[in-house]
């Protein structure tokens, strides 16, 4: 289960997504956990500066230019999860951008990703569509910090219990 914790990491996630996908900055940048119009205007300018520094760079160089340490580490963890053939529960926008980057580096990483929820960020909607991911929950969350993944985990555990332990008609002796 991957989540993130921090302030300002929607800015780096937005810059990464715009630089890697050629999506317009206006589409990628959102209000995050809730900022006013003046702060949003400043956020647009800072993200634009970061994206402009990335012109002509490859995926790893873009990640180095505008990715925060937490996003870089999560990308690496996705790649390692694929190597270990271990499924991972992906939280909201920031972690999904890390998932997107991991798939750009190794598209097979997608096979090990389960998406916890759909956030309100436009960029998150793009990533989910691009990765053909149908998240387990859609609660309008904007918090991050693993909250969506923490909510989805009991659902996954219950589904596994049903699948592994629920009696079939045959094992229960039910005839139809």
TrEMBL record:
EC number(s) from the headed UniProt entry? 2.4.2.21
One matching Pfam family:
DBI_PRT
Q: What's the catalysed reaction?
A: 5,6-dimethylbenzimidazole + nicotinate beta-D-ribonucleotide = alpha-ribazole 5'-phosphate + nicotinate + H(+)
User: Which keywords, in A-to-Z order, does the entry hold?
Assistant: Cobalamin biosynthesis, Glycosyltransferase, Transferase
Source species, domain of life: Bacteria
Which biological process, per GO, is one annotated for this protein?
Answer: cobalamin biosynthetic process
For the keyword Transmembrane, the answer is no
The record ties this protein, via SUPFAM superfamilies, to:
Nicotinate mononucleotide:5,6-dimethylbenzimidazole phosphoribosyltransferase (CobT)
In alphabetical order, the GO MF annotations are: nicotinate-nucleotide-dimethylbenzimidazole phosphoribosyltransferase activity
Q: Which InterPro entries match?
A: Nict_dMeBzImd_PRibTrfase, Nict_dMeBzImd_PRibTrfase_N, Nict_dMeBzImd_PRibTrfase_sf
Secretion signal span: none
Principal EC category:
transferase
Pathway as given in its UniProt record? Nucleoside biosynthesis; alpha-ribazole biosynthesis; alpha-ribazole from 5,6-dimethylbenzimidazole: step 1/2
Do the record's keywords include Glycosyltransferase?
yes
CDD domains given for it? Answer: DMB-PRT_CobT
The similarity annotation says: Belongs to the CobT family.
PANTHER family xref list = NICOTINATE-NUCLEOTIDE--DIMETHYLBENZIMIDAZOLE PHOSPHORIBOSYLTRANSFERASE
Q: What is this protein called?
A: Nicotinate-nucleotide--dimethylbenzimidazole phosphoribosyltransferase
